[in-house]
Amino acid sequence: MRFVLEPEQQDMADTLRSMFAAADVPDIARAWAAGDGEGWRKLWQRIADLGVTGITLPEERGGLGLGPIELTLCLQECGYAGLPGPVIESLALLPSLLPDLTADATARTAVVDRHVPYALDADLADEVYAVGPTSSRLLTGISLQRRESFDATRRLFEVSSSGDEEIAGADFDRAFDLAVLGCAAYALGLGNRMLDLATEHVKQRQQFGRPVGEFQAVKHHLANALLKLEFARPLIRGAALSAGTPHGGRDASAAKVAAADAAHLAARVALQVHGAIGYTAEHDLHRYLTKATALRQSWGTPAWHRRRIATSLSTDPDTPIGSP
């Protein structure tokens, strides 16, 4: 199976990475955590101008008409930048769920039955939804109750509403699986960024007169993290290829488990090589550490996804993961 990116796909990823690097995402994230969404909305408008907010929408609805592979590439770059906000909801979940959605710069968030009990950044979002296997609704007349979050930039809210609008024709299962896949891609981006931060740190930090990165034990830790991340990458690509098939949910779960575990290992290694400074909220590593930890439990816990994989393999053990 071919997993090499096409030139157009690589150009898309490179464009996003350059835009995020120039936008000072760390400063935007700090403001977002404090409830100031002005900088984020300006960046989100630029993302919409590139067509990313409608990446999977058909051209007749103002989208790019691309598929899950391009979606995962964009979310991986969002993860690498540590972009806050309801990114997975706005790019993966709701465009697949809402049959009449058009491409725009609207920020959308959702409560997802069983897996996402609190709406992410509901106070700064333009639209709040409640979605599940039996019904999906746009909530109106909402009231919010703030909840504690491990990641300061993941601002969680319990939502109650005085009214709602039922969404007809919503395909919850496909939308949820795309969101799980998007979460896996975002986690992979987080892991890659933490590994890059750790690698750069050990090149500069001196001990016994030479860079820490020259010590074999440090190299082994970094190599183990890189290996874990690289093994998760083809699972994400395979799940993107099988999205929408009878095995798409299982493959998305496999990608989520692998990417979340890889990001978790990268976080541990990065924290170990950074030492005490990695624990401080002032260091950029802290943003990625907390986000990777939170996302590991979001969009389905590791235990839930492993059960889904095991159930699928027990009933159909001959279909490989990533098979179209």
UniProtKB/TrEMBL annotation:
User: Where is the Acyl-CoA dehydrogenase/oxidase C-terminal domain positioned along the sequence?
Assistant: 176-313
Cite the Acyl-CoA dehydrogenase/oxidase N-terminal domain residue spans from the record.
7-84
Record InterPro entries: AcylCo_DH-like_C (IPR036250), AcylCo_DH/oxidase_C (IPR009075), AcylCoA_DH/ox_N (IPR013786), AcylCoA_DH/ox_N_sf (IPR037069), AcylCoA_DH/oxidase_NM_dom_sf (IPR009100)
User: Is Metal-binding one of the keywords?
Assistant: no
Q: Which Gene3D superfamilies match?
A: Acyl-CoA dehydrogenase/oxidase, N-terminal domain, Butyryl-CoA Dehydrogenase, subunit A, domain 3
The keyword RNA-binding appears for this protein: no
Regarding protein family, the annotation reads: Belongs to the acyl-CoA dehydrogenase family.
**Name under which the protein is recorded:** Alkylation response protein AidB-like acyl-CoA dehydrogenase
Q: Which organism is it from?
A: Saccharopolyspora dendranthemae
